[in-house]
Amino acid sequence: MTVFSQYQYRDSNRIGISFGLNQFTLNTNNFETKPGNGWNAGLSMRGNYYNNWDMVYAMQFSENNFSVTTNGGFITENTNYKLSSAQISLMWSYKIIESHLSVELGPLVQINGKLNVEKGKENNIITGTTLLVKDIVDISQFNFYPVIGITAGVRHVRLNVSYQYGVNNMLGNLNNKNLGYSFKGNPGILNGNLIIYL
Fold this sequence. Notes:
Elements: E1 14-28, E2 33-50, E3 53-72, E4 75-97, E5 101-112, E6 116-117, E7 125-126, E8 142-153, E9 157-165, E10 185-197
Antiparallel strand pairs: 1-2, 1-10, 2-3, 3-4, 3-7, 4-5, 4-6, 5-8, 8-9, 9-10
């Protein structure tokens, strides 16, 4: 007598293409900032790890935006900063409902360049300081973020919402510039991405 039992389907290795939006906030007491909206695009690999746990490896390219209150002549206005970055993450994913609902957490590393300043406002003065807008563009180029998120949807299309907070000082590099201030700033990023699994 032969007995055959088919193991329950598991959502094994899948490649995902993601794209979406982000909201970037620079948390600092050095000057007044406002969050701005940007975009994300990337690739990920989701695979079974152990029991109800998956591992998700992802690479994402982002454009982040935020603004700083500045004075241009006699006018107070918001000046936009743009930050382009590449991120690599390795997340643990706990499957609440197979192929439909999971929560993720893990570390993320970001590499970025200098801040890009809104054209024509480079010489505005940052409100409450003696600094020009162009004085604070050379920020730290390496950042580490813990991330927590949730993913929901169907087998091939899912929505991921996550939040990441930078634990190191993004403005730390400015403290080597002898600008007369002690800079400290931690970024927080809220992401909403649509993931298409192939």
